[in-house]
Design brief:
By secondary structure, the chain is mainly beta. It contains no helices and 43 strands. The strands form ten sheets. The chain has a six-stranded mixed β-sheet with strand order 2-11-9-4-5-6, with no helix packed on it. The protein starts with 13 loop residues before the first strand and ends with a strand.
Length: 480
């Protein structure tokens, strides 16, 4: 026996709306956005198209089951196809510049209201973005740079979508343009412009190019260039000139006075990026380096003797790369050989750049003078016609000390006018590099009869004065 069975009416538990996840459009177009809902013969009252931003959600378009459509925004229109099995809504977005189209850049959703509220619905979501063309481009660069330094040149552009625009920094040469390779990845910072001030739906984007400039770029012209792939348009700045000056070493101090049993330190500074140089080298009057050191504080050439050392003192944030070069001034037979000129050079990874090293620092072994004395005749004959002499002697370093004859007053002194001054330096007589020194002052002393004189040694390193004993100039007058 066959029974008559009735097929049950299966009620769906979900009604799902479908939309394309993201939509992009050009300016001055009408773009379609579609929402498809499979209703499966269920009764419904309305379909809503909503717009969502960071602060609010608003109904923009309402579609009723009698095909009536209500729009809350003049830029948004719609049509609908209604079938027993589905609802297909097409939304038209007008991206005309005159319609303040940038307000359309937001997220949208589509949902349906069923008569049977026990049935769950799932709304569809999409994002809409107007891909505006590249509208402006500017370059920011300094006129002058130092060779070997890491510099930043900025390109500021107004564009719609980063993915559709290629921005590059180029060198201009004879009507041709070539990309400049950056040493670091280009930084992109997006500044969203106020929609009421930006009818072109663009964002301001800053491209920062970190590049290593060498003096081979001196006199070059550079520009920022933008290529809008979507709109097939290009935009460039004017070519601007840049001046790249050759780097110069700076040896400090120019004069270095070192005392016995101490250390004397020169600092060599060069405005270079750390990634550019390979080593600092220090020289005296020889052609072979005394020492060489890199930024890892490793000696690339070992010290030529145990009196010299060096240490790299900079970090990556300093504007200058610097090395301290130190000499040990302990007593020894070779101490006085340390006195003299010193200069530094920098080896670069690109050996085509020759760095000048004509900034010299001088080391003086400084020690105060001793045994300052005066040699004077008991008397000088009147009208001797300038042939009389007074001698000043001292044990001193002639590079750091001056020796002269002075007339003494109550609290001051002045140099004795002389016709001829001769300076004689004898052999070194001390372990701190001082010599027997003699100054012979030849003059006419007639006008200085009765004056008190002394020899004065002025030490430039210590800033002190050292006097001999005081003597009186006596004049004898001939009787005719």
């Amino acid at each position: 026996m066959v029974s008559n069975c009735t097929k049950p009416n299966i009620v769906p538990v979900l009604v799902i709306a479908e939309m394309t996840p993201s939509i992009s459009a050009k300016l001055d177009t009408v773009t379609e956005m579609n929402c498809f809902i499979q209703t499966m013969r269920l009764t419904w009252t309305s379909v809503f198209i909503k717009g969502h931003n960071e602060t609010a959600s608003n109904v923009l378009l309402t579609i009723y089951n009698d095909s009536k459509i209500e729009s809350q925004d003049s830029k948004i229109k719609g049509t609908v196809i209604i079938d027993d099995e589905y609802v297909n809504v097409t939304v038209f977005l007008n991206t005309s510049k005159d319609s303040n189209a940038c307000e359309l850049n937001k997220n949208y959703s589509c949902d349906i209201t069923l008569t049977d509220t026990s049935i769950q619905t799932i709304r569809a979501n999409t994002s809409f973005m107007i891909q505006a063309p590249l509208s402006t481009i500017e370059i920011t660069a300094d006129y002058s740079y130092v060779s070997g330094s890491n510099v930043t040149i900025n390109c500021t552009v107004q564009l719609g979508d980063l993915n559709d625009t290629e921005v590059s920094l180029e060198v201009c040469q004879n009507g041709k343009y070539e990309d400049i390779q950056a040493t670091e990845k280009v930084v992109q910072e997006v500044f969203k412009l106020d929609s009421d001030k930006n009818a072109f739906c663009t964002n301001q984007v800053l491209y920062s190019y970190h590049i290593l400039l060498m003096d081979s770029r001196n006199g070059s012209y550079v520009r920022c260039h933008g290529n809008d792939v979507l709109y097939n348009e290009t935009l460039s700045t004017k070519c601007v000139s840049i001046n790249v000056t050759q780097v110069e070493a700076d040896m400090e101090p120019e004069k270095l006075y070192g005392e016995l049993n101490s250390t004397a330190t020169f600092k060599c500074r060069i405005p270079l990026s750390q990634s550019y140089f390979s080593a600092f080298q220090f020289f005296n009057d020889s052609s072979y380096p005394l020492i060489s050191i890199n930024s890892d504080n490793n000696y690339t050439i070992l010290p030529q003797n145990d009196r010299i050392s060096a240490v790299y003192t900079s970090n990556q944030f300093d504007e200058y790369r610097a090395v301290n070069f130190t000499l040990d001034l302990r007593p020894g037979d070779d101490l006085c050989n340390l006195a003299g000129p010193y200069f530094c050079k920098v080896n670069t990874f690109n050996e085509s750049l020759i760095l000048p090293a004509d900034d010299v620092g001088y080391l003086y072994i400084a020690a105060p003078p001793t045994d300052v004395s005066i040699e004077i005749e008991p008397s000088y004959l009147n009208a001797s016609l300038g042939g009389d002499t007074i001698n000043c002697t001292a044990i001193m370093n002639p590079n750091t000390t001056t020796l002269s004859l002075v007339i003494l007053f109550n609290e001051t002194y002045e140099m004795v006018p002389r016709n001829i001054t001769e300076i004689f330096t004898g052999p070194m007589v001390t372990s701190d590099c001082r010599y027997e020194s003699r100054v012979v002052v030849t003059a006419t002393f007639d006008n200085f009869g009765g004056s008190t004189v002394a020899c004065l040694a002025i030490d430039n390193a210590f800033g002190k004065e050292y006097f001999s004993t005081r003597e009186t100039i006596n004049i004898t007058y001939e009787v005719h």
